[in-house]
UniProtKB/TrEMBL annotation:
Annotated Ferritin/DPS domain residues: 17-158
Record CDD domains: DPS
Protein name: DNA starvation/stationary phase protection protein
Gene3D superfamilies reported for this sequence: 1.20.1260.10
SUPFAM superfamilies with a match to the protein in the record: Ferritin-like
GO molecular function, one term: ferric iron binding
PROSITE patterns with a match to the protein in the record: DPS_2
Family indicated by similarity: Belongs to the Dps family.
The organism's place on the tree of life at top rank: Bacteria
InterPro entries: DPS_DNA-bd, DPS_DNA-bd_CS, Ferritin-like, Ferritin-like_SF, Ferritin_DPS_dom
């Protein structure tokens, strides 16, 4: 087979491929969890959350395809089985739970934040350990997407009044709770 000559050593390429496969597994588990909540959610926010999670599902589907195809572009093979994903993902499934809408949001925020922390570390690994600025840039874009999705979700559970200078006023949650 023709060797790949793109300025990365074999060790560097394999290191990056391994990181990408971990990110692929996390994205796939989050995809499934997001879709499940898209189906299960009930309550006054049903329509908004149902639609938001439908959109996030589409974004995650595109991300997954991009991650897997980047693995191929670097000469590797993406993990492509549920068993394989579950073996290396850093996320946890909660199959027995049918949580309230706010708990679903909280759970997905935690997952996005876990992925953001992982990606931040992988970006450093790519540029510092493996000298692969291309993948570092690619992962930076993914991280920014997760930051945006996490912000959208967080906005459902954070109720704070903000003054015109950006300072937080009293939390609406605390007001509602009479604190
Ligand atoms: Fe749907």
């Amino acid at each position: 087979m023709r060797s790949i000559n793109i300025g990365l050593t074999e060790e560097q390429r394999q290191g990056v491929i391994k990181l990408l496969n971990h990110d692929l597994a996390d994205a796939y588990v989050l995809l499934v969890k997001t879709k499940k909540y898209h189906w299960d959610v009930v309550g006054p926010q049903f329509r908004t959350l149902h639609e938001l999670w439908g959109e996030h599902y589409e974004t995650l589907t595109e991300n997954i395809d991009s991650i897997a195809e980047r693995v191929r572009a670097l000469g590797g093979y993406p993990v492509g089985t549920m068993k394989g994903f579950l073996e290396i993902t850093t996320l946890k499934e909660n199959p027995e739970n049918l949580p309230l809408a706010t708990q679903m949001v909280e759970s997905l925020v935690e997952d996005h934040e876990q992925i953001i922390r992982n990606l931040r570390e992988h970006i450093d690994n790519c540029s510092e350990d493996f000298h692969d600025e291309g993948t570092a840039d690619f992962l930076t874009g993914l991280m920014e997407g997760h930051e945006e999705m996490a912000w959208m979700l967080r906005s459902f559970i954070e109720g704070e009044s903000i003054s015109s200078d950006g300072q937080k006023l009293q939390s609406r949650q605390k007001v509602a709770a009479g604190v």
